[in-house]
Amino acid sequence: MTSTPSARYHPTWDLSLDPLMSCKLCLGEFPLEQMTTISQCQCVFCSLCLKQYVELLIKEGLETAISCPDSACPKQGHLLENEIECMVSVETMQRYRRQQFEREVLLDPCRTWCPSSSCQAVCQLKEAEVALPQLVQCSVCRLEFCSACRSGWHKGQACQDNMPIITFLPGETSSFYKNDEEDDDAPIKRCPKCKVYIERDEGCAQMMCKNCKHAFCWYCLESLDDDFLLIHYDKGPCRNKLGHSRASVIWHRTQVVGIFAGFGLLLLVASPFLLLATPFVLCCKCKCSKGEDDDPLPT
Predict the structure, then answer these.
(1) Catalytic positions, please?
(2) Transferase: is it a keyword of this entry (predicted)?
(3) Is residue 241 a contact partner of residue 205, using CB atoms and an 8 Å limit?
(4) Is the dihedral of CA 46, 48, 49, 52 positive or negative?
(5) Domain span at residue 74?
(6) If 0-12 CB within 10 Å is exposed, 13-18 middle and 19+ buried, where does residue 268 land?
(7) Do 181 and 217 reside in the same domain of the chain?
């Protein structure tokens, strides 16, 4: 009786698996079909993370182009409009395009928004007189206003000295119909440093511009960049207008003082050890240098 050789076992699955790629945002590993490459810089992220990143920036009110999420991106790439359109919904894309258009108008010295709250028209200024107050007539609602202070046209008269630097987006309440007391707590103002639009719904009066990171008081627009303890709200016209209780302000100041005191104490304690360790470090360095000089030449 002859024995036949047994048939070899062949697995039903393929042992060669596709390599996984790592996402720098969530640190997960995904197959190539679940990744998205940014064309400008060739950085790769998982499609879900990149989609959430883009939607978050648009929702928060984008002021600049959407950059690569990698802060260490060597090419500092940006997402193109067609790449963004493939990730987000139609409504989100419309919001993104509207934000871009509003930014273009903001940065264009020859264009401005009509100050009427019921009008969303963009008015054109005379390029030759753009640095001077000039009469502007809205082509839609026919409103006549001053290009500098955005009040009604005042021929032969200077703009009001106390006119706030508030500029409103289309559809928002305009300073054209407000008095000075209401302007202090207007819902939309401009950053006193970079002039970008900022909206405040509620909460603290200490504001920080997303565009230039400038900290300022919402009511008087005074700089708070160096006021870590918020002393600004202890006196003057903004006294007790921070929007927080006295206890929370004291707790904030205690934390700030504690952080500085902690660093100072750490430096004070570490100083003697650093001074004692310095001779040993220098000695070890000298010995190492001497040892390298005494090494015999290779044969």
Answers:
(1) 204
(2) yes
(3) yes
(4) positive
(5) 22-101
(6) exposed
(7) no
Same domain as 227, residue 161 = no
Q: Rounded to the nearest 5°, which phi and psi values hold at 270?
A: -80, -20
- Cβ-based neighbour number of residue 125 at 10 Å: 16
Q: Report CA 153 to chain centroid distance, whole Å.
A: 36
> What's the Rg (C-alpha) of the chain?
31
Measured in degrees and rounded to the nearest 5, phi and psi for residue 56 equal -65, -45
For 93-117, b/e burial (b = at least 16 CB within 10 A) is bebbeeeeebbeebeeeeebbbbbe
Give the tens place of pLDDT for each residue, 253-269: 787 777 877 777 787 77
Question: Is 37 part of a structural domain of the chain?
Answer: yes
* Same-domain pairing of 168 and 220: no
Q: Which two tokens stand for residue 28?
A: 């997960």
- What pLDDT, on the 0 to 100 scale, is given for residue 45? 93
Could you identify the residue written with the tokens 């940014």? 38
| pTM exceeds 0.70, yes or no | no
